[in-house]
Design goal:
The complex is a heterodimer of chains A (about 375) and B (about 400). Chain A is an alpha/beta fold and about 375 residues long. Chain A has helices spanning about 15-25, 35-55, 70-80, 100-110, 125-130, 155-165, 185-190, 240-255, 255-270, 300-310, 330-335, 335-340, 355-370, and strands spanning about 5, 60-65, 90-95, 115, 135-140, 170-175, 195, 210, 280, 290-295, 310-315, 315, 345. In chain B, helix 7 (about 220-235) links the parallel strand 11 and strand 12. Classes of the chains: A alpha/beta (about 375), B alpha/beta (about 400).
Chain lengths: ~375, ~400
């Protein structure tokens, strides 16, 4: 049986349209900063991708980076420092991606005051947010879709409330898991900065972008030759950026794709809810792309390996070893110890089929049976 | 300037009639090690010393490092090579030796002369070179009785060699002179150290690893291969065997009293290892057990597992403390890999209250529900073999 890939929140395979464009662009070896024709050719294709991404997200400026993590670093570190006059407080959540959370810890070391909103059950309490607005705020960073639980956080609602109290506060949203899966724009979310990544949407690894509603006086994290309007030095990754452009073009047009994923997700949730020993970790509002479940009494890494041996690839919420930590995101979600140890993430893309979902659930049942034994 | 690495034999020199065989194994080890390096090397053997001269002098440090892991070599030094005249010896000594003396308070010059036609006697060489060096380095005293460092001038057939200070070699006996043993290699700290200690005594070490996919991961297996690779920095290659214990573990889980889980499993491991040893012509098993370290390593527990195999089980760590084992693990560079957090087949089903003073009869009774023969046959069908090489030189 061919492989069943259900780990699309980690990364995604290339789609043929993207692969084709990558092949064509491999000959564009010129340095986009070079003044000769080869350089200009590379610069032109990069500009085209920049424009199409800006159109999709409603951005006034797009800065290409080497990853979603780097885009988050640029937004957080630079946004907070440049806007410090607006206030010393930063608001974020307790379940952000490590590239946001670790920046927050660094900003704490630099003297900022951090408030981590609870995301228990995938919910953010607006009263808790309002309470956090009792002191001027320079930066807010709340992700759009959580990568482990699929919870969709009310970013638009949060920005509205923040901007009402502190119009000068900068608002950032890590939209890596929502990009080309949920339709959103910077103005729709009411945010100033959005991070996206190419490899989560069937393009190459090594490319991310920070989209800005309007140009901001940020300072770079990486210094050098002044590429990307001085915000991100280093020779641009032409082929990677082209792959992102191809993804945007292909996926933004394919409107049925999102509906297909939604239908698959519904089917998955229905089937899983009937499996003995499985409990679903469902947030209040869930993205169809990510479904989290806990298997009672089996460590998720063992289950992951058993499925992997059958060519089915999912992700575990915890590592097998007792020394390794369980997921802090799932802890924030409210899972207890056994829920954390048995947590498995299933994440879909438009390439998955109904048959695959059925085969996965069947395999899951069989492996649970086997791994539990008659004990 | 040409430099030469001098390797001094260890215990081999105590050997009598067998000495030739030991020397041949040692020469093979050295040649094999050098073959893995970039560059060409000239080799000479005389007076319980191997002279290794790289064609390109810049290779000397890397070769020195690689040769410091040859069993049978007790010490190494890097010598400057001079033409055989007193003027040249003096010139080389004065130009290159002073930096080696820095930080020491006293030195002496010593000399050896295998070429008796050399116009200076040993005491003359010592006095001439020592005197000039002392003048050039006024901060360091001459102490011929108890010097902190000795400058050595060796006048050999073709060249003279001058060196100061030496480093420790790997010691032990040449690899492959002590028979073959099968090491039960896990991903932990102890078993790689046990394998290294036996290899140091010249025992050729093959490895047997037990996995239990899906309870253990591919990364855990890769980690064990990395550990085998670390040992290959000393032994150049290792036969790596792997057997799956999954079916046996599930059978014990489903059929036996849980407190005996680890003991029953270890008895299976011993029996499988015994058979694998027979197949690979190994004459002993090697384990990393140390008395009292865990429940399955009490004296009573060891007795329950020790009676299974038909060949001797060597446990070189039996009387060592964890701290002592860790010290060796750090020295042979296995420690950092060993502490990577991937689960071992021994730990996945560990009972919460394992028996520490088991009685053999009771263990055998606890095993009664199992079809030992079929389980072992099936496990042996999963036996896979590969050769791991020294990739880090």
């Amino acid at each position: 049986m061919p492989n069943i890939y259900l780990d699309n929140a980690a990364t995604t395979p290339l789609i043929p349209e993207v692969e084709q464009r990558i092949r064509e662009s491999l000959s564009l070896y010129g340095n986009p900063s070079s003044l000769h024709t080869l350089g200009f050719d590379a610069e032109k294709v990069i500009s085209r991708v920049r424009e199409s991404l800006a159109r999709l997200l409603g951005a006034g400026q797009v800065v290409f980076t080497a990853s979603g993590s780097e885009a988050n670093n640029l937004a957080l570190l630079s946004g907070a420092e440049k806007n410090r006059r607006a206030g010393n407080r930063i608001i974020t959540t307790d379940s952000e991606h490590p590239s946001v959370l670790e920046c927050c810890r660094e900003l704490e070391r630099r003297g900022f005051e951090l408030v981590y909103l609870s995301t228990r059950g995938g919910r953010i309490d607006m009263n808790e947010l309002e309470a956090a607005l009792d002191t001027p705020v320079c930066l807010v960073s709340v992700m759009h879709t959580n990568n482990e639980t699929g919870a969709i956080y009310p970013v638009a609602e949060i920005s509205k409330r923040v901007k009402k109290r502190y119009p000068r506060a900068l608002i950032h949203s890590d939209c890596v898991q929502a990009f080309l899966k949920d339709s959103f724009t910077l103005s729709g979310l009411g945010v100033d900065m959005v991070s996206v990544s190419a490899h989560k949407v069937h393009a190459l690894k090594g490319v991310g972008a920070l989209a800005l509603a309007k140009p901001l006086p940020l300072s770079p994290v990486i210094f050098g030759g002044g590429q990307e309007k001085g915000l991100r030095s280093g020779t641009e990754n032409t082929v990677g950026i082209v792959s992102l452009g191809a993804s945007v073009e292909t996926l933004a047009r394919d409107r049925e794709r999102v509906e297909r994923i939604s239908a698959l997700s519904d089917k998955l949730v229905t089937l899983l809810s009937e499996v003995d020993g499985v409990s679903l970790n469902l947030p209040e509002k869930k993205s169809p792309t990510v479904t989290n479940l806990s298997v009672n009494g089996i460590r998720s890494e063992t289950l992951l390996h058993a499925l992997s041996a059958r060519g089915i690839f999912v992700s575990s919420g915890s590592a097998c070893s007792s020394k390794a930590k369980t997921s802090s995101v799932l802890e924030a979600f409210g899972l207890d110890k056994s829920g954390l140890e048995g947590a498995v993430r299933v994440s879909l893309s438009g390439l998955n089929t109904e048959d695959e979902i059925e085969a996965f659930v069947t395999a899951l049942k069989e492996e649970i049976q086997r791994l539990k034994g008659n004990r | 300037m040409k430099r030469t690495i001098l390797l001094k034999y260890g215990e081999i020199i105590l050997k009598g009639a067998n000495r030739r065989a030991f020397e041949k194994q040692l020469a093979d080890s050295i040649r094999r090690r050098l073959k893995g390096l970039i560059g060409e090397y000239e080799l000479e053997y005389m007076q319980s010393t191997v002279y290794v001269t790289p064609e390109r002098d810049e290779d000397v440090e890397i070769a020195h490092d690689a040769l410091s892991r040859i069993f049978g070599i007790v010490s190494l030094c890097i010598a400057y090579r001079a033409e055989k005249s007193m003027e040249e010896i003096m010139r080389v000594a004065l130009e290159y030796i002073p930096p080696h003396l820095e930080g020491y308070r006293s030195f002496k010059a010593d000399a050896r002369r295998s070429d008796k036609t050399f116009p200076y006697t040993t005491p003359q060489i010592m006095m001439e070179v020592g005197g000039e060096l002392s003048e050039k380095c006024p901060d360091i005293a001459v102490d011929v009785i108890n010097p902190e460092i000795t400058v050595m001038i060796e006048v050999r057939e073709k060249y003279a060699f001058i060196h100061a200070g030496k480093t420790m070699g790997a010691g032990g006996l040449p690899y492959g002179t002590g028979g073959r043993g099968l090491l039960l290699l896990s991903g932990g700290i102890d078993s790689p150290v046990a394998g290294w200690m036996m290899a140091k005594r010249g025992v050729e070490v093959d490895a047997l690893h037990f996995e239990s996919f899906p309870y253990t991961s591919e990364r855990a297996l890769e980690k064990v291969k990395t550990l085998a690779g670390k040992l290959c920095r000393y032994t150049d290659k290792m036969h790596f065997n792997k057997v799956s214990l999954t079916e046996i573990q599930e059978a014990i889980r489903d059929n036996c009293e849980y407190d005996y889980f680890t003991l029953i499993l270890r008895r299976f491991m011993m029996e499988i290892a015994d058979e694998v040893a027979r197949r690979v012509n190994a004459n002993a098993l090697i384990t990393g057990e140390s008395i009292g370290q865990v429940a399955s390593q009490t004296m009573q527990a060891l007795a329950v597992t020790d009676c299974v195999p038909s060949i001797p089980v060597f446990r070189p760590l039996i009387g060592m403390d964890k701290e002592e084992i860790v010290q060796i693990a750090r020295r042979i560079d296995t420690f950092a890999t060993s502490i990577e957090p991937y689960e071992d087949c021994c730990t996945v089903f560990t009972p919460p209250h394992p028996r520490t003073r088991p009685v053999l009869e009771k263990v055998i009774r606890a095993e009664e529900g199992l079809d030992r023969k079929t389980l072992i046959e099936n496990a042996l069908k999963t036996l896979e073999h590969q050769v791991i090489y020294n990739e880090a030189f």
